[in-house]
Amino acid sequence: MWSIAPFSRSSSLSFHPSKGKRFSLAALLLLTSSLHFFSTPCKAFVGNTPDCDSDASNQPSGKFFSLSPTRRRFRSSAHANPNSDPYYRAIAQDLERSANEMGEVKSASQIEKELGEINEALANLPEDADSAKREELQNRAEALTHTLRRRDPEGMGSPLSAVPVAREKPSDFLDDVPAVSIPGGTFKYTQVKASDPSTGFVKLFVRGDLMAEYHYQTATPLLRELEARGGLETEVQGGGRIRHDPDSGTIEVYGYSYQYGRADHAQTVSVLKKHFPSSYKISWHNEGY
């Protein structure tokens, strides 16, 4: 027969033949599989199941499986049929949920860092660069800005669904949001379109920020406010720069955005003229960045 040598921290399991008798290969495989199964950490499975020892907080402790024969054990995915095994399906669903949650773990600062890198990459693309590459970067940036808007201003991850929804109609809500919010000085700006699909009401917004390093930062506060209301469709139409001198009453609109492209500056000027006194001189051109 085979015998098992004593186990210690300095030794490992070893098998020794005795009396020249052969040990069944099937029995050896069965023993190896059993040892592997019962030494599998609970953390290898998702969720707190009756198979896992738990602490007082009802969370998996990460201890080994109990050897109690009365407790049902999950089979690993390698031995389960995904089409017929309910335990496998439960594990797969938990894994999918965990993956989705993992995607929400990024902090606002991490997202902003990645957005900065993408915008720098867009800025460094040559004029004759592959349009597919540019579009890929722009789409990635848009996906990240959408994720960023799901964060609270402090980046703690509060969902927009936690924000109270106003009771008035979406179009009435849009009416109450100022069309223009820009400071004095020279800064990046974005043009944002919001619409109420139920009524067809459409409104253009102009947002600028002296402190914005990238164009998405000028639009994020407004988009977060509009999306929190619900029932509205929003889209950044483009961007550029604004030079605003309140003392002389002049505004110059120009340039473009790497992430959003060039806004229709003529439309921006139209919005600005409705907001500022008629004495203001407001012009636009497409030169510069």
Structure description:
This protein has 3 domains: 69 residues, no CATH class; 54 residues, no CATH class; 115 residues, Janus/Ocnus (Pyruvoyl-Dependent Histidine Decarboxylase, Chain B), CATH 3.50.20.20. The N terminus is likely disordered. With 289 residues, the protein is α/β, with parallel strands linked by helices. The chain has 7 helices and 8 strands, in the order E-E-H-H-H-H-H-E-E-E-H-E-E-H-E. The chain is 34% helix and 18% strand. The chain has a 6-stranded mixed sheet with strand order 3-5-4-6-7-8, with helices on both faces. It has a two-stranded antiparallel sheet with strand order 1-2.
Name the structural class.
Answer: alpha/beta
The number of strands is 8
CATH topology of the largest domain: Pyruvoyl-Dependent Histidine Decarboxylase, Chain B
| Main sheet: strand order | 3-5-4-6-7-8
- Helix percent reads 25-40%
Mean pLDDT rating: 71
